[in-house]
């Protein structure tokens, strides 16, 4: 059978096989997958339900396959009990609307149990059923069809296909196929019979009766019936009643198909599938072979050597002559389809024709100048093209679309297409007149071309437009009436996914992630980790007729700015004729993408159907929204901390500067007060001549303090350039201990010795900056700072600006 997406399903004795045009997928069964179906005595039947479920019944057996997970559904007894069917199911059917019907204890029950029809009053065994409008038609082994109204469950009528005397002839099996005006039925017993029931007239017609079993029936849209049997195939035009019996079938290689055809199927591309008893699966399509092949069996040459077709020519009457290395033949094609090659003596060939053939044979230069002025040259490694106007040369290979790199002949036909023969296959080159883009169409043996090499220069176009291509052991003919096939009926099917070159299996975990939860054809979305971004996608066009004549266009939104087009076999140097598209993307960045794929055959008429596959590459945790929020919060916190620290540091600095300023003001006020009091005391003592002793002691104390500060100042200024002149050294030079020096300076100046030394150095630095004779480095050395940066830091704390700015600010204030 054919699935809605175009894939084929084949049931063999062992497996279910699903075919996508290139690969078979096998679904194996186990004993627990089989349910006893005691009411069914026939052979394999496959039904497809609406939910991608396949029901398969065989002689007394029932199986169920879930295509989405590609597994059998085990324990069907449990499945039926969950549906509410406690009793054993005797038989199972599916009507034309894909509704499931169960036969249980003489009652026919719909899957949802909404309809129950009592069959206990009917005679015989129910073998098949079909629905039409609101009626259900039941087919019994007695040959009767009984029609029921599904609305009220009433029996409307019954009609027998044959008399009771004939029941034993056709009582064993039944196969019903719905036609345009009724139902076709295949029946078997001791005989085989093919019947038609007209639902409007309610009349049975016997179309065919045989003395052997009729295996399978298919009806095409034109009401042509194909019936397989143990000895060939019947082809019956049901409109006219014309019957054709083919007892034997010939395969492409000329051999006879000497086996029983057990199954026949007509697909939606008008192709026939034949399942044989012991020679596998065969496929036939009337338009598959575009090229007529005239093989060596039609030539008179010795069978011990190859036949080399060297040239063609045509006389005024339209007769075509074929020259080999030994003879000249005249080719005729009779109305009966017989291909005839007749040896003609050279003396009987028209003189001008003979000269032409011999000239062609001697001048086998593989070169051509087409109507555009382009020069095509065939080589042993590619096809060269030279454009005289642009003075541009190009060369084409198999990767561009040639069937083979070794070129033997070139021809331009009346439609200005370029035909190229090679060591394997023929290539047609079409040039777009607008953008001069070249489109390649490759033809190989799967469409009828020679299996071997073609001959140098052996190409010819007859007056009626027929093309001839000569080669080893035969030649090909392509008539002007050959037409392209219709559009492909299906959209591309997603068949496989590869991660880092490894094929992804269904329901299997990769890097702790299950990628395919359903089979690839049913998968619409794929979610991957950030490091699972090396991907290859595989799609099938389901072009069973001519897989090598398949074209794809695809686009990954977010990566590709426009559609990309490719032909099968033109993707790389390797021949690929299975019709499968393989797309690879590497190092995809995190994001959401939509992969779109379209298909066409050689006429490049896109059918408008687009296959969409949504792909999500998840970002790593550090690139997720949550991580970004945390990063922003952290950044804000750091900025806040920095601002808080700056404010805190600035406030402390301002407070320290303020304290120093207040201290200086207090010292200044105290000095002024002391000077005032001293002057008042001295004036008072002078006037009164009293307390002379106290006055002398007070003056001595002030003089001693001034002398101490003067001495300390001199010592620091003397050692100003000594960077390691410390508090200890100053205390020794003043003949004091460190503690005493500290207390003395705190009591007099409210400053520590280290701050006293640093301020003197900074005052000297400020003076030198105002002089402007030294740079910062020189001043740093002269005032005893260890580095310019430390000087700058201390200077900025005291003066509120950098040393480089101090002199400029002082001049502006002046």
UniProtKB/TrEMBL annotation:
SUPFAM superfamilies for the chain: Homeodomain-like (SSF46689), Quinoprotein alcohol dehydrogenase-like (SSF50998)
Keywords tagged on the record: DNA-binding, Membrane, Transcription, Transcription regulation, Transmembrane, Transmembrane helix
Pfam families: HTH_18, Reg_prop, Y_Y_Y
Transmembrane segments: 627-649
Matches recorded under InterPro entries: Homeodomain-like_sf, HTH_AraC, Ig-like_fold, Quinoprotein_ADH-like_sf, Reg_prop, WD40/YVTN_repeat-like_dom_sf, Y_Y_Y
UniProt keyword annotation of Transcription regulation present: yes
One Gene Ontology term of the molecular function aspect: sequence-specific DNA binding
Residue ranges annotated for the HTH araC/xylS-type domain, each copy included: 710-809
Keyword flag Transmembrane helix: yes
PROSITE patterns, per the entry: HTH_ARAC_FAMILY_2
Family annotation (Gene3D superfamilies): Homeodomain-like, Immunoglobulins, YVTN repeat-like/Quinoprotein amine dehydrogenase
Record's protein name: Transcriptional regulator
Species of origin: Flavobacterium seoulense
């Amino acid at each position: 059978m054919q699935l809605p997406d175009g894939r084929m399903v084949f049931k063999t004795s062992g497996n279910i096989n699903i075919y996508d045009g290139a690969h078979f997928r096998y679904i194996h069964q186990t004993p627990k997958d089989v349910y006893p179906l005691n009411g069914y005595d026939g052979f394999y039947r496959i039904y497809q339900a609406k939910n991608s479920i396949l029901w398969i019944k065989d002689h007394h057996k029932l199986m169920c396959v879930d295509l989405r997970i590609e597994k059998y559904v085990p324990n069907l007894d449990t499945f039926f009990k969950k549906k509410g069917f406690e009793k054993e199911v005797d038989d199972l059917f599916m009507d034309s609307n894909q509704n499931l019907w169960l036969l249980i204890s003489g009652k026919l029950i719909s899957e949802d149990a909404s309809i129950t029809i009592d069959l206990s009053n009917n005679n015989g065994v129910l073998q098949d059923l079909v629905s039409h409008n609101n009626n259900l038609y039941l087919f019994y082994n007695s040959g009767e069809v009984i029609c029921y109204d599904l609305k009220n469950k009433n029996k409307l009528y019954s009609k027998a296909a044959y008399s009771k005397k004939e029941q034993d002839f056709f009582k064993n099996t039944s196969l019903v196929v719905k036609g345009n005006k009724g139902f076709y039925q295949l029946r078997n017993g001791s005989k085989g019979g093919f019947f038609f029931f007209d639902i409007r007239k309610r009349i049975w017609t016997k179309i065919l009766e045989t003395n052997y079993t009729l295996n399978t029936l298919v009806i095409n849209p034109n009401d042509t019936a194909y019936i397989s049997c143990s000895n060939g195939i019947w082809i019956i035009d049901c409109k006219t009643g014309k019957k054709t019996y083919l007892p034997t079938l010939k395969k492409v290689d000329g051999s006879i198909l000497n086996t029983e055809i057990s199954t026949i199927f007509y697909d939606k591309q008008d192709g026939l599938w034949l399942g044989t008893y012991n020679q596998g699966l065969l496929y036939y399509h009337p338009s598959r072979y575009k090229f007529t092949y005239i093989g060596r069996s039609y030539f008179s040459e010795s069978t011990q050597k190859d036949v080399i077709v060297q040239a063609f020519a045509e006389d005024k009457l339209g007769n075509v002559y074929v020259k080999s290395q030994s003879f000249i033949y005249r080719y005729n094609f009779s109305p009966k389809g017989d291909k005839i090659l007749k040896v003609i003596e050279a003396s009987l060939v028209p003189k001008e024709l003979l000269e032409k053939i011999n000239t062609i044979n001697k001048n086998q230069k593989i070169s051509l100048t087409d109507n555009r002025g382009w020069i095509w040259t065939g080589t042993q490694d590619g096809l060269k093209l030279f454009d005289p106007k642009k003075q541009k040369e190009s060369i084409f290979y198999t990767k561009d679309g040639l069937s083979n790199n070794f070129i033997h002949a070139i021809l331009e036909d009346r439609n200005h297409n370029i035909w190229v023969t090679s060591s394997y296959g023929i290539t047609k080159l079409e040039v777009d007149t607008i953008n001069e883009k070249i489109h390649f169409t490759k033809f190989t043996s799967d469409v009828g071309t020679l299996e071997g090499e073609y001959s140098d220069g052996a190409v010819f176009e007859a007056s009626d437009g027929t093309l001839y291509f000569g080669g080893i052991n035969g030649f090909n003919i392509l008539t002007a009436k050959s037409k392209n096939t219709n559009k492909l009926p299906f959209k591309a099917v997603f068949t496989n996914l590869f991660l880092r070159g490894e094929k992804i299996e269904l329901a299997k975990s990769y890097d702790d992630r299950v990628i395919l939860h359903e089979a690839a054809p049913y998968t619409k979305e794929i979610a991957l980790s950030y490091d699972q971004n090396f991907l290859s996608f595989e799609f099938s066009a389901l072009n069973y007729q001519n897989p090598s004549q398949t074209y794809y266009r695809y686009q990954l939104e977010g990566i590709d700015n426009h559609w990309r087009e490719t032909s099968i076999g033109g993707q790389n140097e390797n021949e690929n004729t299975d019709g499968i598209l393989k797309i690879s993307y590497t190092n995809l960045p995190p994001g959401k993408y939509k992969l779109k794929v379209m298909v066409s055959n050689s006429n490049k008429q896109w059918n408008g159907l687009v296959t969409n596959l949504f792909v999500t590459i998840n970002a790593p945790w550090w690139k997720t929204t949550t991580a970004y929020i945390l990063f922003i919060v952290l950044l804000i916190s750091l900025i806040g901390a920095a601002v808080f620290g700056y404010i805190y540091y600035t406030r402390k600095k301002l407070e320290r500067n303020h304290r120093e300023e207040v201290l200086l003001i207090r010292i200044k006020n105290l000095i002024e007060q002391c000077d005032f009091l001293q002057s008042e005391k001295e004036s008072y003592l002078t006037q009164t001549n009293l307390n002379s002793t106290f006055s002398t002691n007070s003056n001595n104390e002030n003089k001693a303090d001034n002398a101490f500060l003067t001495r300390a100042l001199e010592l620091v200024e003397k050692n100003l350039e000594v960077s390691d002149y410390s508090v200890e050294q100053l205390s020794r030079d003043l003949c004091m201990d460190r503690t005493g020096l500290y207390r003395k300076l705190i009591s007099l100046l409210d400053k520590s010795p280290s701050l006293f030394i640093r301020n003197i150095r900074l005052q000297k630095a400020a003076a030198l900056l105002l002089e402007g004779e030294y740079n910062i480095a020189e001043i740093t050395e002269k005032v005893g700072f260890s580095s310019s940066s430390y000087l700058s830091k201390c200077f900025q704390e005291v003066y509120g600006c950098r040393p480089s700015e101090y002199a400029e600010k002082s001049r502006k204030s002046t």
